[in-house]
Amino acid sequence: MAGLLNNSNTRVLTQWHQLFSGQRAARSAEAYTHWQDVERLGLPTRQHEHWKYTPLDGLLVHRFVPATARAVATADRDVLDLGLDACRLVFVDGHFAPALSDSDTGVWHVEVEEGAARKALPAPIQPEVFLHLTESLSQETTRIRLPAGKSAQRPLYLLHISQGSGDQETLSTLHYRHHLDIGASAHGQVIEHFVSMNAHGHFSGARTSMVIGDNAHLSYIKLAFESRASYHFGHNDISVGRDAVVCSSTFILGAGLTRHQTSAQLNGEGSNLSINSLLLPSGQDISDTRTYLEHNKGYCLSRQLHKVIARDRGKGVFNGLIKVAKHALKTDGQMINNNLLLDRLSEVNAEPQMEIYADDVKCNHGATVGRIDQEQMFYLRSRGITHKDAQKMIIYAFAAEVTETIGHDGVHDTVLARITDALQGVTE
Question: Is 340 within the bounds of a domain?
Answer without folding.
Answer: no
